[in-house]
Amino acid sequence: MPATAADNASIYSTTTRSGSVRGPVFSLDTFTSKDYIVKDFIEALSDSAIPARRGSGPGNQQAAFDPKPLIRTFEHALSRLGSLSEELESHENELSGAVRRAEAQHNQNVDSLGRKLEQAIDNFQRLDSSLNGSISDGADQDAGGNVAVRIGERLEELDRQRQRAQDAKFLIQCWMEVSEKGNLSTLEDVRRLGGGDGKVRCAHIARQLLKISTRLDPEGTPHLNGNGAKGPKKRPGAGQSRYPTREIIEKFLESLEKDLLKQFDEFYRRQNFDGMRECAVALRDFSDGASVMALFVNQHQFFIDRSQLITEEVAGDNETWDRLQDPDAEPPGVEPSLQSLVDEVRIVVQEESAIIKRAFPYYDEVLVRFLQRVFQQSIQQRLEMVLDKANQLSSLAFLRSLQAARSYIAALVDDLKSHGLTEHPEPVSSQVAATLDQQLDDLFVPYFVGSSYIEREKKNLEELYSSLLLKFTIYHSRKRKMPTTYFGSLGQRGRELISSARDAYMDRLDSTELPPSQKAMLMRIAGLKDTDSEKKDIEVTDEDGKLSLPNAKRMLKWLAEGVGRGLELSGGNETPKDVQALLTLLLSHMGELYLETALDAAADHAAAQESMTKTPPDLTYLSSLRTAISILHLLQTSTQTVLLPLATPNLTIRREIEKATTNSLATLEAKISTIINRTLDAALAWVTRCLAQQKKTDFRPKDDDDALTSLSTETPACKTVTTFLSRVATQATASLDGRNLALFLAELAKGLRSAVLEHLRKFSVSLAGGLVVSKDMNGYVDLVRGWPTGEELEPGAMDVLVEVANLFVIGPEALRERLRGGGHEAMELRQYVMRREDVGSVGVQAVLTAL
Predict the structure, then answer these.
(1) Is 18 exposed, middle or buried (0-12, 13-18, 19+ CB in 10 A)?
(2) Structural domain boundaries enclosing 316
(3) Which residues form the Exocyst complex component Sec10 N-terminal domain (predicted)?
């Protein structure tokens, strides 16, 4: 907010009691403030110049304006501003002078520093030239830095030669000591006092002594005469030792190795990684460090603890195991004890890799040995126990456990690779990555040898499919083979057939030696009770013989699970063959055993309806067509979108799959077409029988009262036909859809048209009867007009019935006009004109003669 006059009270003076005005007081700080505003400054000056009014009466309100205080205030302010301006200018001049003096001093400093830098550069160049021995200055090539470098190299070479000479001297002293005195006291002193480097040196020298012993003293034993050990000693030949040098050296090396291993173990327990590294370097000369790596791995607490737990049985709650073997339930995942082991392995390996890197210079080899032990001992043993337990339950439980274990252990391998282990945070080395991949493959190789895996998948699906379709198969087998003669024989043979089918299924379960839990699961899928395990009839109902879309979806779901599992577990070049095997199984059960059986039964039922004479045909079997078409569509979609793309790598197998699928689908579609055609035949046959019930007097009423009564409604035959066809259309609409429904109703309409036209040729129609015919024809046309035939039935296809009916009611002149032009159509219509009751009249005969 702008400063008010009251806010500036500390800066500006106010009016005195006597009315005199004191000039405003302000300084440079007033104008440098952030809150300074010119308008507020002027207002403050004005307010300070006007004296405060003591009263509010009318006299004060009418007082005249007095500019003198304002003039004096502003004059004083201008005077003050002038003095401030002079003060500011003086201060500015002082600052400008100080800046010029600082700039001059800065320029002098820069010049001085520049001269010093040039001098340093010149000195450096002269030093560099002297070190490089510049030839341009006439100096010798061997002068300066080159000489220094060559002298240093020579000194290093002499030092190496001196060191080799000392090592050779020490080696000779040790050999003389072991060959003449039979001990290695000097080497023992170095071993005892030399620390880690001394032990490494001792191991190296002992190895060289062993080589010398092998060459100078091949036998490595004292040379005695033929009198035995107690005989006088034979003087050894030149270069031969009086003591068993090899044995002494080997004992020394063995003792040294044990000492180093013991020391390594002590360092490991104290977490002294530097000491462990020294011992590991020394033990590298002993079997390439195999002993120290074995010690490190075998003494690891992880293997000690796990060796006590590995004998525990695989536990788990019953609900989890039941879900594992239930094909309709989601798999519960990896077994808890195996999951716990893998999680612990992930933590232990990551932590131990850091220790290995600090304790071993050759850490990759140690890590590989450690990983091999973890996978081959701990994980493999627990994996085998879990899979054995699952295999005791069912084939599906085994396959699901195998998939879950493979996925979880593969995730462990990926996590270890990404962690880096000894290379953390970088990815693991190629050697460790190859080891991890190899260990993962070795764990599961026994379960994928040859075709063992896909055979398990096929066996599992076949058992599930057979169980699911058991009652369906029994129902249709009994219905197809049931005798139709004597009722008692019919019931007896039906029971025998049911019993044989049920016994065959139970015998197959027993012959495969399935676990009890798997048998119980398969019987549950088949809809059998525990009491059905005895040899007795299996009760089946009509519902068991119908197609079920949920059952078909279950079959496809089981297949999809098997395909997905196969891609995850086996994969590779065998995928097309595996897909072909599973597709063959699917086409066999869903295509042949399920769909074809149901369609054959429906086709037989439809064929039987064609010969029905007393009752309308039973078209209830049409309800199975919608389910069959839906299942067929699911089968085709699954094959095209899921299975065929997986067979793409092998063109031969893909062509075989396409051929088998096409043949199977074509067979099923042909059966559906057969059922629809037989349904049309049965429906039209019943229409013909209904039309045959038409009375001759229906189209020749005896009197006008009968004609009027007939005109009020359709004839009984027409009512029967329309009622029946309405029911057929309703059932077809509920069973078919899309183009299939339109084709069916269009063919039914065409058949109705042909039957009615043929029917009209059999009756003589009077003038009044022509009106009755028109009523019936309109009923047929209205019936068909309400059907969803789409484009399958041409527009106006049924109007010919109305046109034919008109031929019976129009007069001769209109009839002549209708038949004008002749042609094939006129000749066909002539047949209906001949059925007019007045065909013998002069007018009608004239029309017919003109044709």
Answers:
(1) exposed
(2) 300-447
(3) 67-190
